[in-house]
């Protein structure tokens, strides 16, 4: 299914409505939430609200567009016939959510024929609603977004995140040991989507992380790109679980070359 600008705006409007509702439900349920289960490691948690919010989003999408597909972090995998797929992270930044922190978000991306055409990142506790359509620009609370002007790597404020396995964290610490003296400073917020939107908003200059999934970057990568960032992996690859980088052109290449030489897309010499 090819989409016109009007189609993308219509899909975005649905995503915004659903993300607002999902964010409100999640925010109201944050107090007193507890761990329901773990995923890859004991520190990789999922709460009851993750699953409840994903189910709410799935139901709302299919009620309005029953022929679409839905892919969710916590298990939703509906296959439709329309060629449109909704990619959902019900709570990106679950550990932040569990600890009562503000940096978490509901993320909804809409794909048509494998290309992201609309995206919403709702950070309700912060009062921020990030939106974008392909070719239509990126916005936060209705204000147009633009990345910060390019700076040299040694003047860049760089956001990053860490995986959950001990082996991956050890390698990420080794990478960071070399990166930190080469940049202005490092920030670690705990939500990949919020970090990517921070690049779009000019609140950081760049971002990189290993271990992301399509629901982590889907909506937020479009927002960053539409704000003027380059978002991708190493050596011309698109964003992928090995490594995702976001920065304005020029800075992107500097950070890319540094990370490529450090094995930032691996879990160490024997980790792949």
TrEMBL record:
InterPro entries: IMPase (IPR033942), Inositol_monoP_metal-BS (IPR020583), Inositol_monophosphatase-like (IPR000760), Inositol_monophosphatase_SuhB (IPR022337)
GO term, biological process aspect, one: inositol metabolic process
MF-aspect GO terms: histidinol-phosphatase activity; inositol monophosphate 1-phosphatase activity; metal ion binding
Gene3D superfamilies: 3.40.190.80, Fructose-1,6-Bisphosphatase, subunit A, domain 1
Alphabetic keyword roster: Hydrolase, Magnesium, Metal-binding
Entry annotated with the keyword Magnesium: yes
Cofactor annotation: Mg(2+)
Catalytic activity: a myo-inositol phosphate + H2O = myo-inositol + phosphate; L-histidinol phosphate + H2O = L-histidinol + phosphate
Record EC number: 3.1.3.25
Pathway participation: Amino-acid biosynthesis; L-histidine biosynthesis; L-histidine from 5-phospho-alpha-D-ribose 1-diphosphate: step 8/9
Function: Catalyzes the dephosphorylation of histidinol-phosphate to histidinol, the direct precursor of histidine.
Similarity field: Belongs to the inositol monophosphatase superfamily.
Protein name: Inositol-1-monophosphatase
Organism the protein comes from: Streptomonospora nanhaiensis
Lineage: Bacteria, Bacillati, Actinomycetota, Actinomycetes, Streptosporangiales
């Amino acid at each position: 299914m090819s989409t016109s600008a009007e189609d993308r705006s219509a899909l975005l409007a649905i995503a915004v409505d659903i993300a607002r509702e999902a964010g409100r439900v999640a925010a109201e349920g944050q107090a007193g939430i507890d761990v329901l289960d773990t995923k890859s490691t004991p520190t990789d948690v999922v709460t009851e609200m993750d699953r409840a919010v994903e189910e709410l989003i799935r139901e709302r999408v299919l009620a309005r567009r029953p022929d679409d597909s839905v892919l969710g972090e916590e298990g939703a995998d509906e296959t439709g016939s329309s060629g449109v797929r909704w990619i959902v992270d019900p709570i990106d930044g679950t550990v932040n959510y569990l600890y009562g922190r503000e940096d978490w978000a509901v993320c909804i991306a809409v794909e048509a024929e494998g290309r992201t055409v609309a995206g919403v990142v709702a950070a309700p506790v912060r009062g921020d609603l990030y939106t974008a359509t392909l070719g239509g620009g990126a916005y936060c609370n209705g204000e147009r977004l633009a990345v910060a002007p390019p700076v040299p790597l040694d003047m860049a404020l760089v956001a990053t995140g860490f995986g959950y396995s001990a082996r991956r964290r050890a390698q990420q610490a080794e990478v960071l040991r070399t990166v930190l003296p080469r940049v202005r400073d490092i920030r670690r917020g705990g939500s990949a989507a919020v970090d990517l939107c921070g690049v779009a908003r000019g609140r950081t200059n760049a971002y990189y992380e290993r271990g992301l999934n399509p629901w982590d970057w889907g909506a937020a990568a479009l927002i960053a790109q539409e704000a003027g960032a380059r978002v991708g992996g190493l050596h011309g690859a698109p964003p992928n679980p090995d490594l995702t980088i976001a920065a304005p052109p020029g800075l992107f290449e500097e950070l890319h070359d540094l990370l490529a030489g450090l094995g930032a897309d691996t879990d160490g010499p024997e980790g792949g």
